[in-house]
Task: structure prediction
Amino acid sequence: MDALVDRRIFERMVEDFTGWYTLKDKEEILGEFLGLDFSAGGLRVNSRQQILEARALNLSLVSSSVNGPIGNTALVVWQREIKPGWWQSGLKFFQPDFMRLWPLVRSEQYKED
Result:
């Protein structure tokens, strides 16, 4: 079995964004992250700490292409230390909604060949 098989349902979009997370229904910011890419199903991020696993997290995404934070709720589905003090995580949205993330999409990613 090929370990590199891509099983994504939604196309991955590469964009510069940052953000922070809180526990669901709480306001205290628990950590921040640097976004690597996203899709309608979730996102991949780097952070200076491990992100809480098996907990519903409220995410706030910020980008220069968006006027205010974009909110969503997600769960950490995988996480690994990429170098000392840096973690990479895959987060899955509870309710995939690409329209909420649409402002992050750059038009040049959808040019016809």
